[in-house]
Structure formats: C-alpha cells, structure tokens
Design a protein that fits this description.
mainly alpha, 2 helices, Cell division protein FtsL, coiled coil
Length: about 100
C-alpha cells in the first residue's frame, strides 16, 4: 500500500488566511459604519424638513379656519368689493 501524505496546512498559510479574513471583516465594518453615518445625517435632515412642513401645515390649517369665519368674509368684502358696514364712513380723495 502506497504511503499517503496527510494534508496539512502550513502555519504561514493559516496566518495569511487569518489576516485576509480580519482585513475583510474590518473593511466590511468600516463601510457599514460610513453608510450608517450617512443614513443618520439624512435622518437629521429629513427630521428638520418634517418639522418645517408640520409648521406650514399648522399655518394653512389656521388660515383655513379663519377663512370660514364671518370676520374674514367682511374683511374680504371691504377690501375687494369696497363694501361698507353699517357704521363705516367712506372717504373719497379729491384732486
């Protein structure tokens, strides 16, 4: 029976393989950390935009509520149509 050699990994190969694995894991961790920082920066930016939009929504809701009041209709009639109320006096400018 022929003498079979048992396959053995040399220590230099084991160290090289370990270095490659650690380097690959380190690069993966680094790239994920950079991506996470980018996502966090975008999140902060979008939070600011959301707050601004919520403020605008509040302004528009108040404007809508005011537009439904009688006071708004009276002011609009006075400004656009020149209508006067019961106790109002109209002043006419002369040349």
């Amino acid at each position: 029976m022929p003498n079979k050699k048992k396959f053995r990994l040399k220590p230099r190969f084991k160290i090289g393989l370990a270095v490659i694995i650690v380097t690959a894991l380190g690069l993966t961790f680094y790239s994920q950390e950079m991506k996470l920082r980018e996502i966090n920066a975008n999140y902060a930016q979008y939070e600011g935009e959301l707050e601004s939009l919520n403020d605008q929504i509040g302004i528009y809701e108040r404007m809508e509520a005011y537009a439904k009041t009688d006071e708004y209709l009276l002011n609009l009639a006075k400004q656009k149509l020149g209508l006067l109320g019961k106790n109002d006096t109209k002043f006419i400018e002369g040349n």
